Amino acid sequence: MPGGLLLGDEAPNFEADTTVGRIRFHDFLGDSWGILFSHPRDFTPVCTTELGRAAKLAPEFAKRNVKMIALSVDSVQDHLAWSKDINAYNGDEPTEKLPYPIIDDHKRDLAIKLGMLDPDEQDGQGMPLTARVVFIFGPDKKLKLSILYPATTGRNFDEILRVVDSLQLTAYKKVATPVDWKHGDSVMVVPTISEEEAKKLFPKGVFTKELPSGKKYLRYTPQP
Ligand code: BEZ
């Protein structure tokens, strides 16, 4: 895939037409976290379920200070017409505004720049469609996490919320979140912290699991 973003890269400050008018990406993000997620095509089944779920979860993203924005290789006109179907799928009034804008990338400029195109998934004219990409940016506008799914596999937006919780916690505390972690579960003390430092940093206590290696790296502490 040409183009693309790697962890730590700054989000490009692109200008684009969206369902809420023309935006400049950095101005759109402001000081918030941001999630930019692409889908293959408007008026397709899996995409409708995904964008419907994203709309339902919008208040949860807002609570976490995360701005949401979607993108596909369709026009604003199509996005607006399709929004009515998404609302109907959600059981909402068709004319309701979706709680996030959708970017018009019918020329594929952004999809190419951001490495979002899936060469195996094409429209009737043989033009590639956008894959199901998720980019999560921090308030510094740097890429903190990316997810890439093919057109045939819908994403789990609860998982995206879960990773936002992990990213936001670990951005400010010297911890990492273990397998299947969810908000409120115990977390791991990162390996670079000494035992002495860990005692000071985590007054709720540190539990170290004994291991056959004798190494003391499996250290849990309640979520700070
Ligand atoms: C869908 O959203 O259902 C879809 C879109 C493109 C290819 C396959 C499935």
Automatic annotation (TrEMBL):
Residues annotated as the enzyme's active site: C47 (cysteine sulfenic acid (-soh) intermediate)
InterPro entries listed in its UniProt record: AhpC/TSA, Peroxiredoxin_AhpC-typ, Peroxiredoxin_C, PRX_1cys, Thioredoxin-like_sf, Thioredoxin_domain
Enzyme category, top tier: oxidoreductase
Family matches, as Pfam families: 1-cysPrx_C, AhpC-TSA
Keyword terms of this UniProt record: Antioxidant, Multifunctional enzyme, Oxidoreductase, Peroxidase, Redox-active center
PROSITE patterns tied to this protein: THIOREDOXIN_2 (PS51352)
Molecular function (Gene Ontology), one example: 1-acylglycerophosphocholine O-acyltransferase activity
Reactions catalysed according to its record: a 1-acyl-sn-glycero-3-phosphocholine + an acyl-CoA = a 1,2-diacyl-sn-glycero-3-phosphocholine + CoA; a hydroperoxide + 2 glutathione = an alcohol + glutathione disulfide + H2O; 1,2-dihexadecanoyl-sn-glycero-3-phosphocholine + H2O = 1-hexadecanoyl-sn-glycero-3-phosphocholine + hexadecanoate + H(+); 1-hexadecanoyl-sn-glycero-3-phosphocholine + hexadecanoyl-CoA = 1,2-dihexadecanoyl-sn-glycero-3-phosphocholine + CoA
Gene Ontology biological process terms in this record: cell redox homeostasis
PANTHER family linked: MCG48959-RELATED, PEROXIREDOXIN-6
Subunit composition and interactions: Homodimer. Interacts with GSTP1; mediates PRDX6 glutathionylation and regeneration. Interacts with APEX1. Interacts with STH. May interact with FAM168B. May interact with HTR2A.
Protein name as annotated: Peroxiredoxin-6
